[in-house]
Specification:
The protein is of the alpha/beta class. The protein has two domains: 122 residues, 3-Layer(aba) Sandwich (Rossmann fold), CATH 3.40.50.2300; 123 residues, Response regulator (Rossmann fold), CATH 3.40.50.2300. It has a five-stranded parallel sheet, with helices on both faces. A five-stranded parallel sheet has the order 7-6-8-9-10, with helices on both faces. α8 links the parallel β8 and β9. α2 runs parallel beside α3 and α7 runs parallel beside α8.
Length: 257
């Protein structure tokens, strides 16, 4: 989930925008004082900054100048009337700053953020719906469409189930909507389970996601090769629903603990 820092006076407008965007992004509020706001930028390292121009006037130039000089790679969206942006018009000549003229709908602010961060609006909305559901998110990765459908049918009554038919698509899915656990087919073409697990573990933000291998080969050497990768668990295909759910619960509880 992308991190957004919202800077401005703590009024009803700021609260309303923050509450709405909080459904889709990791929001953090900062007081309009330049030193306070800039300190928050350093700590949070946001993907995007929103500035409410309502009542800022005297701090605009200082804040904008410091953001331009010290954090030129962070996109900034301001929200204000043409009058409120008059003192800082020169900052909008570059690509870092963009102003949304208010009054403006929150949905239009959402669209502007997705555009600046190159995000697919529908994917962000779907991710928020899954997160609000409250159930654990399970990513199932298998190149066999029948297996994917079967596993989804087993699990969807208890979990939010996401599907990927290749290792690379799995990595894309994880980046958009982090799962609580991953069921990973060991035997896949091009990018197999071992390679996919290595990619997951190469990202320090993903290393704690439990990965349970599913394998259709039941011989000693094969199972030993699977266990050497130290997954959170492994199951033989076809998966038995009770064992599958038990393995997921054990793996996710260990992570939570």
């Amino acid at each position: 989930m992308k991190k957004i820092l919202m800077i401005g006076k703590m009024n009803d407008l700021t609260k309303d925008i923050n509450d709405f965007l909080g459904r889709y992004f990791r929001m953090q509020l900062a007081h309009e004082n330049p030193q306070t706001a800039l300190g928050m930028v350093k700590v949070i390292e946001p993907d995007l900054i929103i500035i409410s121009l309502v009542g800022l006037y005297d701090v605009n130039t200082v804040l904008f100048g410091r953001l331009q000089k010290e954090f030129p790679d962070i996109p900034v969206i301001t929200i204000g009337t043409e009058g409120e942006q008059r003192d800082v018009l020169s900052f909008y000549n570059g690509s870092q700053f963009e102003n949304l003229i208010r009054p403006i709908e929150n949905t239009d602010i959402f669209t502007a953020i997705c555009k600046r961060l190159s995000l697919n609006e529908q994917s962000v909305r779907e991710g928020a719906m899954v997160a609000e559901d409250g159930r654990k998110k399970i990513l199932v990765v298998d190149d066999n469409a029948t297996t994917l459908r079967s596993l989804k049918s087993m699990l969807e009554g208890r979990y939010n189930v996401m599907l990927a038919n290749s290792g690379m698509k799995a990595m894309t899915s994880i980046g958009k909507n982090r799962p609580d656990a991953i069921l990973l087919d060991y035997e896949m073409p091009v990018c197999d389970g071992r390679q996919t697990l290595e990619m997951i573990r190469a990202d320090e933000d993903l290393t704690k996601i439990p990965v349970i291998f599913l394998t259709g080969v039941n011989d000693r050497s094969h199972i030993q090769a699977v266990l050497k990768l130290k997954p959170a668990g492994y199951l033989l295909k076809p998966a038995v629903p009770e064992k599958l759910i038990a393995a997921i619960e054990e793996a996710t509880q260990q992570t939570e603990g």
